[in-house]
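Study this chain:
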Amino acid sequence: MRGDDDVREKEGLEERIDEVVVPRAVRTLKRIPVYLLVLAQTGCFPFGSSPSPFPLKSADGRIQITLPAGWKQDRALHATAELAASNRAGEMYVIVLSDNKSDYDEMSLEKNSEITRTALLEGTKSPQTSGPQRLTINGSPALQYEIQATVDNLHIVYLHTTVETAGYYHQILAWTLRSRFEKAKPVLQEVIASFREISSR
C-alpha cells in the first residue's frame, strides 16, 4: 500500500539523520553542536586545518565541496556522512548525506527536504523555520531552509539544503551558534554553493 511505502521511505531517511558518532547517547543531528563543544574544549579533532581553500571529495569520488581556509575534514561529526568538515575556531560545521533515488518510490525534492527537516527538529525547542529558498547549485535544483532551534539550552541556527541530481538527493546541513550566525552565514553559504557532483555513478 502507498501509505506503508511512505512510512518505510520516511524511516529509511530518518535513520540517515540519526546516525551520529559515539557517545551513543548523542543520537541525532540536533545534538551535534553540544558534542562539538566538548570536542573543542578537549582539542580532540583528528585533522589539522588548511591555510588555504581546498576541495574535499567523498570516499567514492562522487561528490565534493570546497573548504575555505581554516576548515578541515572532520569525520567525527557523523558516522556515515559522505562529507563532513568543520572550522573549530569559528564553530562552523557542515555534513553531506546522499540518498540514491533508486531506493525510493515517488520521492521528490520537496518530500525529501520535508522528511529530513522533520527528523532534524525532533526534540528541539522553539524551532523557527524560514524558507524555502529555491536555489541552483552547480546546475542542480535545490531547496534551502534556515532553521533556528534551542538544543540543550544552546541556540543553534541550521542551513538545511537539499540538492537534487539525476540519481541522488543530497542533504547539505550546515550550522553554528546563533550568536555567530550573521558572521558565519556567508562562509556557510560559500561552502554549500561549492557542492558539486563530479561523478554520477
Observations:
- Helices lie at 2-18, 32-42, 109-121, 181-193.
- The chain has a mean pLDDT of 80.
- Strands lie at 54-57, 63-67, 72-73, 83-87, 92-100, 125-137, 140-151, 154-164, 168-177, 196-197.
- Residues 86 and 195 are 15 Å apart (CA to CA).
